[in-house]
Specification:
- With 181 residues, this protein is an all-alpha fold.
- The chain has a domain at 109-180.
- Helix content is 60%, strand content 0%.
- It contains 5 helices and no strands.
- The longest helix is centred in the last third of the chain and has 47 residues, at 134-180.
- The protein is rod-shaped.
- Residues 85-162 form the Casein kinase substrate phosphoprotein PP28 domain.
- Residues 1-14 have a biased composition (Basic residues).
- This is Ventral anterior homeobox 1.
Length: 181
Amino acid sequence: MPKGGRKGGHKGRARQYTSPEEIDAQLQAEKQKAREEEEQEEGGEGALGDPKKEKKSLDSDESDEDDEDYQQKRKGVEGLIDIENPNRVVQTAKKVTQLDLDGPKELSRREREEIEKQKAKERYMKMHLAGKTEQAKADLARLAIIRKQREEAAKKKEEERKAKDDASVAGKRLQSLSLNK
């Protein structure tokens, strides 16, 4: 037996489905309400009369509960006191027809920072390849020093090889001269 001594639960209840006609009537009522609000803003208050009476005349078969669904239900003293909290975020459920999929999407802070980081890295690499960064200048200077050292080492090696060849040629001449005597 469940809590509270009641029998059964809510699982066996019959489900209520909204018919397509009721959905169409609700959509038309919402469009009519939006039009009336726009006209009131343009023409001023009280220009058209009471919008609730007109709405009830359009949707006479719907109950008063539907009128309450359009207004947010307030708990406690919220209905008595108007609170303007700038930090409070009012959550509104967007309908599929209201979603803007083609418009520009706002990126989160992390995504923006990641993209900026990648762009900065690409910019730095372009400047580095062009030799405009401090690191690139230092690398080029280091490479120039190494190149000079290698050239000097190659010249020295070449001179040593020539000196060795000259010494061996001179030694062979001496040997050939000494042998010819």
